[in-house]
Every structure is written in C-alpha cells, then in structure tokens.
Amino acid sequence: MMKKFGFGLLVATFVIAGCATSPDDPNRNTKEKAAMGAAAGAVLGAVVGYSSDKNRGRGAARGALIGAAAGGAIGAGVGVYMDKQQAEFERQLASERNAHQIEVERLKNENLKITMNSEVSFDYDSAAIKPSFNRTLDKVNDIVAKYSRTNVVIMGHTDDRGSDRYNQMLSEDRAKSVAIYMEDGGVAPRRISTEGRGESEPRATNATEAGRQLNRRVELLIIPDNDIQ
Q: What's the pLDDT tens digit per position in 5-43?
C-alpha cells in the first residue's frame, strides 16, 4: 500500500524540482502554482490508480503521471488567470499607484489585494465615496467585472481615534459603500461580501498622523475560483 504513495511523492518531488524558479522570474507565481497542483495531482492520481487497476503498481504509476498533468494544468490555469488580472490592474491604475492612492499586491495563495487610501476615497468621518474617486473605482469595476471567475471581499479599516464601536461601524459602512458602487457598476452581488475590521488591524503606528493615514483604508481581496483551467 505504501508504494502508491511513494511513487506519487517521487513524481511530485521531480515536478517541484523541475519547476524551481528564481525570485526575479516574472512567471514565478504561475510556475509555483502549477508545481503545487502537479504535486497534489500526482499523489491523488497514484492513490486512485492503485485502487482501480488490477496491476496496482502500474496503476499507481499511470495514475500519478496523469494526476500530475491534470493538477499542473489546473494550478497553472489559476496562476495565468490571476497574472493577467494583476497586470491589468497595474496597467489601468498606474497613475493612482504612482500617486500612492492605491496599492496592488499579489499574495502567496494567488489572491490579489487592492488597497485604497481612504484619504482620497472618503471624506473625514464619512462613508460616502468622494465623487473625485469615482473614475478610479470605475477602472476597478471594469476589471473585476471582466474577470468573473473571482470573488471579492471588501474590508474597511480605521485608525484608533474614536471609540471601538464607532470605528467598527464606520469601517463596515465604508466597505458597504464600495460594495454598492461595484454592484451598480456591473459586478454581480453574489461575488461580493463585506467586512468591517475597525481599528483591529493597523498597518502602522497610530501615534503619528502618517501612521494613522496608512491605517485608514479599504482593501479588496480578490479570490480566484479553485477550478480555473
């Protein structure tokens, strides 16, 4: 019984080793995702092949190879999809990024995080989106609507001035305002959820105005479907 796992792990090891990338590789995320998918597919394929084939050793080997190919394709598919979406965000939001109004970040689990500085998106003590920020949100909307195989979690954050309860409510209201804007802009409501984090997740110290400004923000976490191919 252990042989099926051993062969699958052997295939997985070779796949991961073959997909090793340098930190400067522009396709690093896609290659690493493909390697992880191939590794998982190899082990699962070996198990299935061992169980379903009369010649169990051969079945495990064949299953591991097929599983590695399928898993790698799925993993690479997610990576390519998110690579394209990230590139489009970076291109369309270049001016906002240069002005430090928006940040675009790729997380290790393939999620994208779009961070919006609340100083440019909301007036002080308000959950109403500034009209001057509409054009930027329209760009975000167009990209999110185009890449429909993702879901969006909108998270509001505040600094620590004011009561915990008030800050929690303000963060929730700002997240909801962005959600309503996105829905009005064509993003399906079923793809959107909102959360208020209040003052609980600061990025910097609240002892300075510069730090408080970093802490006042709205983040969009863009999460891909697991079955993208």
A: 454 445 445 444 555 555 555 455 544 555 555 454 444
Q: How many CB atoms lie within 10 A of CB 117?
A: 19
- Record the pTM: 0.69
d(CA 72, CA 110): 15
Q: Under 8 Å CB-to-CB from 171, ≥6 apart: which residues?
A: 155, 156, 157, 158, 196, 197, 198
Cα–Cα dist 191/223, whole Å: 10
Give the C-alpha separation, 36 to 58, whole Å.
23
Spatial distance between the Cα atoms of 116 and 155, rounded to a whole number of angstroms: 10
Superfamily the domain 93-224 falls into: OmpA-like domain (3.30.1330.60)
Neighbours of 69 (CB within 10 A): 16
Domain limits, the chain: 2-83, 93-224
Task: Write out residues in the chain with pLDDT < 70, as ranges.
Answer: 1-76, 229
Cα dihedral 69, 71, 75, 80, rounded to 10, equals: 40
